[in-house]
Amino acid sequence: MNLLDIFKRRSSAPVARERLQVLLAYERRNRSQPDLVSILREEIMAVIAKHVQIDQDYLQVSMDRGETMSTLEIDIQIPNKSAVPLAMAG
Amino acid sequence: MGKVVVVTSGKGGVGKTTSTAALGAAVAKTGKKVALVDFDVGLRNLDLIMGAERRVVFDLVNVIQGSAKLSQALIRDKRVETLFLLPASQTRDKDALTEDGVGEVIDKLRSVFDYVFCDSPAGIERGAQLAMRFADEAVIVTNPEVSSVRDSDRIIGLLDARTLRAEQGEQIAKHVLVTRYDAARASRGEMLSIDDVLEILSTPLLGIIPESQDVLRASNLGSPVTLSEPLNAAAKAYIDAARRLEGEDLPVVVPFERKGFLDRLLGRRAA
Ligand SMILES: Nc1ncnc2c1ncn2[C@@H]1O[C@H](COP(=O)(O)OP(=O)(O)OP(=O)(O)O)[C@@H](O)[C@H]1O
Ligand SMILES: [Mg+2]
Question: Example GO molecular function term (chain A) (predicted)?
Fold first, then answer.
């Protein structure tokens, strides 16, 4: 066992604790009401659907829920035929 | 066409989820395309063990109910390009999974991936039966302990009766994966031996995973042990098991106890 191992051994429980805190805070909140990021996701998708018909296959949604900050990424590929400009793709 | 492998056990807490993550990651690291599917509806944990819990957007039930596409629900691993996770839903509705729905999803996965690992819930009820329903192969996770071996035997019975393959008169390949093997206790004769387990279950052995702190640490960090610490004993055992699953003919070595200083000093002998 080298020094790095000792460091790793020490560091795994705090990582677990932090991961659980973030996850459980989210899950508890979410039990009573959907979280803001999910609401945004659904509303943004509804707005997009109003203007252009998007094949679900060309739409990727990814999230990363952090402790103080979450990111929501919506990646849409819009066929050139539809002349509707959309700034939020990407 | 990819292979569908169910990771099952009957008894709870024997290491199915840990093994799904470790085996799946080991296979994916060789360049194969691998999907891990969490069937533990209501109690998903594979996302946590894979370190993907913050990135779950859609799940298996969303895909079955049509509110998300399969491609949208699959989460790509950040470490291994060819490794993907399909999370279980946290719904309390146990009937959210339908057999037809699961069949469709598995068929699609099978056409895209080389391996589809299904992490079964504990028990022998509907959830466990759906997880095994479309499998080509089964990894039966067993601890060397009486109740686990008994439950494995029941699961083997189900695999031979209730899977689609069995109903069609085909064979489902079964492998026993012994986990949480404690060499020290085995050498004292306090634990069923590997030979006992294999003789009772009369099913070939895929590997022996030692009881190990490394496994716990890997779960804490959200990384399969085969990725985070591939040189550790448990990881090596999983990597070898993954190679056997892919058809390689590797001999299984039963972990032996490295005698501690005190044992040697006192001249203690194995029972
Ligand atoms: N080889 C091992 N050494 C030490 N601990 C282990 C080992 N394998 C699994 N464990 C621990 O055993 C516990 C149960 O593991 P796991 O969640 O993988 O079991 P499971 O069969 O999926 O459980 P469930 O039936 O609830 O789904 C976990 O705490 C895990 O870290
Ligand atoms: Mg599990």
Answer: identical protein binding
pLDDT tens, residue by residue, A50-70 = 888 877 778 888 989 888 888
Q: CA A58, CA A81: separation in Å to the nearest integer?
A: 14
Q: What is the pLDDT of residue A89?
A: 47
Number of separate domains in chain A: 1
Share of chain B above pLDDT 70, in %: 94
Mean pLDDT per 10-residue segment, chain B (271 residues): 97 98 98 98 95 95 93 96 96 87 98 98 96 98 96 97 97 97 89 93 97 95 96 97 97 78 55 41
3-class secondary structure per residue, B72-135: HHCEECCCCCCEEEECCCCCCCHHHCCHHHHHHHHHHHHHHCCEEEEECCCCCCHHHHHHHHCC
Q: Which residues of B touch A60 (CB under 8 A)?
A: 71-72
- The reply to whether residue A56 touches residue B55, judged by beta carbons under 8 angstroms, is no
Domain around A28: 18-78
Q: Is A29 an interface residue toward B (CB < 8 Å)?
A: no
Atom 8, ligand 1: residue with shortest CA distance:
B15
Residue A66 lies in a domain: yes
Instruction: Establish if A59 touches chain B: CB-CB under 8 angstroms.
Output: yes
Whether A7 shows a pLDDT value over 70: the answer reads: no
Structural domain contains residue A5: no
pTM of the predicted structure, to 2 decimals: 0.90
CATH number at residue A47: 3.30.1070.10
| SS3 state of residue A6 | helix
Distance from CA of A64 to the nearest CA of B (A): 5
Residue of B53, B72, B222 with shortest CB distance to A56? B72
With b for 16 or more beta-carbon neighbours within 10 A and e for fewer, the A67-84 pattern comes to eeebebebebebeeeeee
Residue A1 inside a domain? The answer is no
A10 part of a folded domain: no
